[in-house]
Design a protein that fits this description.
16% strand; two-stranded antiparallel sheet; mainly beta
Length: 76
């Protein structure tokens, strides 16, 4: 895993993160670790209409939880 480590004055972080009072006006070590891959807004796929059912809409009820009977039928 790649990371960046740099020793800087805590005042360089003003306006970026909140520095605890005990660390203000001190030299601190800043370590940057990757936690997630960000995808730019341009790279995200755009919403597309359903090609097999032009003009059809998915009702809100589609997103409601399944009943206990339906869950049991699926073995869940």
């Amino acid at each position: 895993m790649e990371y960046v480590s740099q020793t800087i004055g805590s005042s360089a972080l003003n306006g970026i993160i909140e520095i605890p009072p005990a660390l203000r006006n001190k030299t601190v070590q800043l370590i940057i670790l990757p936690v997630d891959n960000l995808v730019s807004e341009q790279a995200k796929p755009k919403k597309r209409p359903l090609g097999f059912a032009k003009g059809a809409e998915i009702p809100d009820s589609f997103f409601e939880p399944l009943s206990e009977e339906e869950l049991q039928a699926w073995g869940l």
